[in-house]
Design goal:
CATH architecture of the largest domain: 3-Layer(aba) Sandwich
CATH topology of the largest domain: Rossmann fold
Structural class: alpha/beta
Strand order of the largest sheet: 3-2-1-4-5-6
Helix content: 40-55%
CATH class of the largest domain: Alpha Beta
Protein backbone atom coordinates (compact mmCIF):
# COMPACT_ATOMS: atom_id res chain seq x y z
CA UNK A 1 0.00 0.00 0.00
CA UNK A 2 1.35 3.39 -0.96
CA UNK A 3 2.29 5.61 1.97
CA UNK A 4 0.72 8.63 0.26
CA UNK A 5 -3.04 8.97 0.00
CA UNK A 6 -4.18 11.67 -2.42
CA UNK A 7 -7.76 12.88 -2.73
CA UNK A 8 -8.67 14.69 -5.93
CA UNK A 9 -11.86 16.65 -5.28
CA UNK A 10 -14.25 17.72 -8.03
CA UNK A 11 -14.83 21.15 -6.51
CA UNK A 12 -17.46 22.20 -9.03
CA UNK A 13 -19.54 19.11 -8.29
CA UNK A 14 -19.24 19.66 -4.54
CA UNK A 15 -20.35 23.29 -4.88
CA UNK A 16 -23.39 22.35 -6.94
CA UNK A 17 -24.39 19.63 -4.47
CA UNK A 18 -23.97 22.00 -1.54
CA UNK A 19 -25.86 24.80 -3.27
CA UNK A 20 -28.98 22.72 -3.73
CA UNK A 21 -28.70 20.89 -0.39
CA UNK A 22 -28.58 24.06 1.74
CA UNK A 23 -30.87 26.93 0.85
CA UNK A 24 -31.32 30.53 1.99
CA UNK A 25 -28.07 31.01 3.88
CA UNK A 26 -26.47 34.43 3.49
CA UNK A 27 -24.64 37.17 5.35
CA UNK A 28 -26.42 40.13 6.90
CA UNK A 29 -25.85 42.15 3.73
CA UNK A 30 -27.44 39.44 1.58
CA UNK A 31 -24.31 37.75 0.18
CA UNK A 32 -25.21 34.09 -0.48
CA UNK A 33 -23.04 31.62 1.47
CA UNK A 34 -25.04 28.38 1.34
CA UNK A 35 -22.81 26.62 -1.21
CA UNK A 36 -19.68 27.75 0.62
CA UNK A 37 -20.99 26.46 3.96
CA UNK A 38 -21.92 23.08 2.49
CA UNK A 39 -18.62 22.90 0.60
CA UNK A 40 -16.61 23.35 3.79
CA UNK A 41 -18.63 20.70 5.60
CA UNK A 42 -18.27 18.22 2.74
CA UNK A 43 -14.54 18.82 2.46
CA UNK A 44 -14.12 18.27 6.20
CA UNK A 45 -16.19 15.10 5.95
CA UNK A 46 -13.93 13.78 3.19
CA UNK A 47 -10.90 14.52 5.34
CA UNK A 48 -12.39 12.85 8.40
CA UNK A 49 -13.57 9.78 6.47
CA UNK A 50 -10.42 9.15 4.43
CA UNK A 51 -7.52 10.85 6.29
CA UNK A 52 -5.56 11.90 3.18
CA UNK A 53 -1.91 12.78 3.35
CA UNK A 54 -2.40 15.04 0.30
CA UNK A 55 -5.32 16.59 -1.53
CA UNK A 56 -6.28 19.14 -4.16
CA UNK A 57 -9.57 20.67 -5.32
CA UNK A 58 -10.22 21.03 -9.06
CA UNK A 59 -12.64 23.47 -10.68
CA UNK A 60 -14.06 23.41 -14.21
CA UNK A 61 -12.39 25.84 -16.59
CA UNK A 62 -14.74 25.33 -19.54
CA UNK A 63 -15.09 22.80 -22.34
CA UNK A 64 -11.96 21.96 -24.36
CA UNK A 65 -11.94 23.11 -27.97
CA UNK A 66 -11.38 19.59 -29.31
CA UNK A 67 -14.60 18.29 -27.72
CA UNK A 68 -16.60 21.24 -29.01
CA UNK A 69 -15.15 20.66 -32.46
CA UNK A 70 -16.27 17.03 -32.35
CA UNK A 71 -19.72 17.93 -31.02
CA UNK A 72 -20.72 21.62 -31.02
CA UNK A 73 -23.75 20.75 -28.86
CA UNK A 74 -21.54 19.25 -26.16
CA UNK A 75 -23.12 20.19 -22.80
CA UNK A 76 -25.18 22.87 -24.61
CA UNK A 77 -28.39 21.72 -22.89
CA UNK A 78 -27.11 22.64 -19.43
CA UNK A 79 -28.58 25.66 -17.74
CA UNK A 80 -26.08 28.41 -16.88
CA UNK A 81 -24.68 28.32 -13.38
CA UNK A 82 -27.05 30.23 -11.05
CA UNK A 83 -25.76 33.69 -10.23
CA UNK A 84 -26.04 33.02 -6.50
CA UNK A 85 -23.74 30.02 -6.93
CA UNK A 86 -21.30 31.70 -9.32
CA UNK A 87 -20.77 34.46 -6.79
CA UNK A 88 -19.57 31.91 -4.22
CA UNK A 89 -16.73 30.45 -6.28
CA UNK A 90 -14.28 33.20 -5.35
CA UNK A 91 -15.26 32.90 -1.67
CA UNK A 92 -14.70 29.14 -1.83
CA UNK A 93 -11.26 29.59 -3.34
CA UNK A 94 -10.45 32.19 -0.68
CA UNK A 95 -11.44 29.66 1.98
CA UNK A 96 -9.19 27.03 0.41
CA UNK A 97 -6.26 29.47 0.46
CA UNK A 98 -6.83 30.15 4.15
CA UNK A 99 -7.20 26.42 4.85
CA UNK A 100 -3.97 25.59 3.05
CA UNK A 101 -5.71 23.43 0.46
CA UNK A 102 -4.30 23.60 -3.06
CA UNK A 103 -6.87 24.30 -5.77
CA UNK A 104 -6.54 24.44 -9.53
CA UNK A 105 -8.60 25.75 -12.43
CA UNK A 106 -7.17 25.34 -15.91
CA UNK A 107 -8.64 27.57 -18.60
CA UNK A 108 -10.70 25.66 -21.20
CA UNK A 109 -10.15 22.38 -19.37
CA UNK A 110 -12.76 20.34 -17.54
CA UNK A 111 -12.15 19.26 -13.97
CA UNK A 112 -12.47 15.61 -15.09
CA UNK A 113 -9.47 15.90 -17.39
CA UNK A 114 -7.37 17.64 -14.74
CA UNK A 115 -8.30 14.88 -12.28
CA UNK A 116 -7.40 12.25 -14.87
CA UNK A 117 -4.01 13.82 -15.53
CA UNK A 118 -3.24 14.16 -11.83
CA UNK A 119 -4.37 10.58 -11.15
CA UNK A 120 -2.01 9.26 -13.81
CA UNK A 121 0.81 11.40 -12.43
CA UNK A 122 0.23 10.36 -8.81
CA UNK A 123 -0.85 6.72 -9.01
CA UNK A 124 2.62 5.19 -9.27
CA UNK A 125 3.47 6.76 -5.90
CA UNK A 126 0.14 7.00 -4.07
CA UNK A 127 -3.29 5.63 -3.39
CA UNK A 128 -5.56 7.99 -5.34
CA UNK A 129 -9.17 8.69 -4.40
CA UNK A 130 -11.37 10.62 -6.84
CA UNK A 131 -14.14 12.49 -5.02
CA UNK A 132 -16.64 12.86 -7.85
CA UNK A 133 -20.18 12.03 -8.92
CA UNK A 134 -19.23 11.66 -12.60
CA UNK A 135 -19.23 8.13 -14.00
CA UNK A 136 -16.76 9.21 -16.71
CA UNK A 137 -14.07 8.89 -14.04
CA UNK A 138 -14.74 5.15 -13.76
CA UNK A 139 -12.41 4.70 -16.74
CA UNK A 140 -9.47 5.63 -14.48
CA UNK A 141 -10.11 3.02 -11.80
CA UNK A 142 -7.48 0.36 -11.20
CA UNK A 143 -5.67 -1.14 -8.21
CA UNK A 144 -4.34 2.30 -7.20
CA UNK A 145 -7.24 4.57 -8.19
CA UNK A 146 -10.75 4.49 -6.68
CA UNK A 147 -13.82 6.74 -6.85
CA UNK A 148 -15.47 7.99 -3.64
CA UNK A 149 -18.64 9.99 -3.05
CA UNK A 150 -18.33 13.77 -2.75
CA UNK A 151 -20.92 13.75 0.02
CA UNK A 152 -18.85 11.58 2.33
CA UNK A 153 -19.14 8.01 3.53
CA UNK A 154 -16.60 5.21 3.46
CA UNK A 155 -17.81 3.39 0.35
CA UNK A 156 -15.52 3.35 -2.67
CA UNK A 157 -15.75 2.25 -6.29
CA UNK A 158 -13.02 -0.14 -7.31
CA UNK A 159 -12.70 -2.48 -10.27
CA UNK A 160 -15.23 -5.00 -8.98
CA UNK A 161 -17.72 -2.34 -7.91
CA UNK A 162 -17.61 -0.75 -11.37
CA UNK A 163 -18.21 -4.12 -13.00
CA UNK A 164 -21.13 -4.84 -10.65
CA UNK A 165 -22.71 -1.45 -11.38
CA UNK A 166 -22.14 -1.18 -15.14
CA UNK A 167 -21.54 -4.74 -16.30
CA UNK A 168 -18.06 -3.92 -17.64
CA UNK A 169 -14.61 -3.41 -16.19
CA UNK A 170 -13.07 0.07 -16.06
CA UNK A 171 -10.96 -0.61 -19.17
CA UNK A 172 -14.20 -0.82 -21.18
CA UNK A 173 -16.03 2.15 -19.65
CA UNK A 174 -15.07 4.44 -22.55
CA UNK A 175 -16.55 2.03 -25.10
CA UNK A 176 -19.59 1.38 -22.90
CA UNK A 177 -20.28 5.12 -22.64
CA UNK A 178 -19.71 5.54 -26.37
CA UNK A 179 -22.52 3.07 -27.05
CA UNK A 180 -25.07 4.43 -24.58
CA UNK A 181 -24.17 8.13 -24.76
CA UNK A 182 -24.42 10.52 -21.86
CA UNK A 183 -27.46 12.76 -21.52
CA UNK A 184 -25.71 14.84 -18.84
CA UNK A 185 -23.16 15.92 -21.45
CA UNK A 186 -25.62 16.00 -24.36
CA UNK A 187 -23.86 13.07 -26.05
CA UNK A 188 -26.30 10.88 -28.03
CA UNK A 189 -25.76 7.13 -28.05
CA UNK A 190 -26.97 4.34 -30.29
CA UNK A 191 -30.79 4.41 -30.46
CA UNK A 192 -32.24 1.56 -28.42
CA UNK A 193 -28.94 0.67 -26.75
CA UNK A 194 -29.01 1.13 -22.98
CA UNK A 195 -26.50 0.15 -20.29
CA UNK A 196 -27.50 -3.53 -20.15
CA UNK A 197 -27.40 -4.02 -23.94
CA UNK A 198 -24.06 -2.22 -24.17
CA UNK A 199 -22.52 -4.39 -21.46
CA UNK A 200 -23.84 -7.54 -23.16
CA UNK A 201 -22.34 -6.48 -26.49
CA UNK A 202 -18.95 -5.80 -24.92
CA UNK A 203 -19.08 -9.08 -23.01
CA UNK A 204 -19.84 -10.93 -26.23
CA UNK A 205 -17.22 -9.27 -28.41
CA UNK A 206 -14.65 -7.98 -25.91
CA UNK A 207 -14.26 -4.59 -27.59
CA UNK A 208 -15.84 -2.24 -30.10
CA UNK A 209 -13.21 -3.14 -32.66
CA UNK A 210 -14.16 -6.81 -32.47
CA UNK A 211 -17.86 -5.94 -32.56
CA UNK A 212 -17.44 -4.00 -35.80
CA UNK A 213 -15.35 -6.81 -37.31
CA UNK A 214 -17.91 -9.47 -36.37
CA UNK A 215 -21.13 -7.48 -36.61
CA UNK A 216 -22.65 -10.19 -38.87
CA UNK A 217 -22.76 -12.48 -35.82
CA UNK A 218 -25.63 -10.41 -34.48
CA UNK A 219 -29.06 -11.41 -35.75
CA UNK A 220 -30.48 -9.17 -38.41
CA UNK A 221 -32.90 -6.74 -36.83
CA UNK A 222 -33.22 -3.37 -35.08
CA UNK A 223 -30.13 -3.71 -32.89
CA UNK A 224 -27.75 -4.66 -35.67
CA UNK A 225 -29.18 -2.01 -38.00
CA UNK A 226 -28.92 0.68 -35.31
CA UNK A 227 -25.31 -0.21 -34.58
CA UNK A 228 -24.28 -0.16 -38.23
CA UNK A 229 -26.06 3.16 -38.79
CA UNK A 230 -24.45 4.68 -35.69
CA UNK A 231 -20.86 3.60 -36.18
CA UNK A 232 -19.56 7.11 -36.86
CA UNK A 233 -21.41 8.40 -33.80
CA UNK A 234 -19.90 5.69 -31.61
CA UNK A 235 -16.39 6.34 -32.93
CA UNK A 236 -16.85 10.05 -32.24
CA UNK A 237 -18.19 9.31 -28.76
CA UNK A 238 -15.05 7.36 -27.90
CA UNK A 239 -13.04 10.51 -28.51
CA UNK A 240 -15.52 12.64 -26.55
CA UNK A 241 -15.64 10.53 -23.39
CA UNK A 242 -11.99 9.54 -23.24
CA UNK A 243 -10.38 11.72 -20.58
CA UNK A 244 -7.15 13.57 -21.21
CA UNK A 245 -4.41 12.19 -18.97
CA UNK A 246 -1.59 14.28 -20.44
CA UNK A 247 -2.29 17.80 -19.13
CA UNK A 248 0.66 19.59 -17.54
CA UNK A 249 -0.84 20.57 -14.18
CA UNK A 250 2.42 21.99 -12.81
CA UNK A 251 2.05 20.65 -9.27
CA UNK A 252 4.31 18.56 -7.05
CA UNK A 253 3.84 16.63 -3.84
CA UNK A 254 5.04 19.58 -1.77
CA UNK A 255 2.07 21.61 -3.08
CA UNK A 256 -0.55 19.15 -1.86
CA UNK A 257 -0.20 18.41 1.86
CA UNK A 258 -3.43 17.97 3.80
CA UNK A 259 -2.71 20.38 6.64
CA UNK A 260 -4.91 22.44 8.90
CA UNK A 261 -4.30 25.83 7.31
CA UNK A 262 -3.69 29.14 9.05
CA UNK A 263 -6.03 29.48 12.10
CA UNK A 264 -5.68 33.25 12.13
CA UNK A 265 -6.63 33.63 8.47
CA UNK A 266 -9.46 31.13 8.85
CA UNK A 267 -10.85 33.01 11.84
CA UNK A 268 -10.90 36.29 9.91
CA UNK A 269 -12.52 34.54 6.95
CA UNK A 270 -15.22 32.82 9.03
CA UNK A 271 -16.05 36.10 10.73
CA UNK A 272 -16.30 37.82 7.35
CA UNK A 273 -18.79 35.27 6.01
CA UNK A 274 -20.56 35.10 9.39
CA UNK A 275 -20.00 31.39 10.07
CA UNK A 276 -20.26 31.76 13.82
CA UNK A 277 -19.93 28.08 14.78
CA UNK A 278 -16.79 27.66 12.70
CA UNK A 279 -15.27 30.82 14.15
CA UNK A 280 -16.10 29.59 17.66
CA UNK A 281 -14.36 26.29 16.96
CA UNK A 282 -11.16 28.20 16.21
CA UNK A 283 -11.42 30.30 19.36
CA UNK A 284 -12.09 27.21 21.50
CA UNK A 285 -10.24 24.38 19.75
CA UNK A 286 -10.53 22.12 22.78
CA UNK A 287 -14.27 21.89 22.09
CA UNK A 288 -14.13 21.17 18.40
CA UNK A 289 -12.05 19.36 15.82
CA UNK A 290 -10.65 21.94 13.43
Amino acid sequence: MASRKLILVDGTAVLYRAFYAIRQLSTADGTPTNALFGFIRMLRQLRDDWHPSHWIVLFDGGSPADRLELLPAYKAQRAPMPDDLRGQIALTQEYLDCAGVKWLRMERQEADDVMASLAKWASPDAEVLLATSDKDLYQLIDDSVKVIAVSGGKSEMGVQEVKAKTGVEPRLIIEWLALIGDSADNIPGVPGVGPKTASKLLAQFGSLAEMWDRIEELPEGKLRSALVASREIVDRNVKLVKLNTALDCDVGWNDLPAGEGDPGKLLVFFEKVEFGSMAKALRQPDLFDL
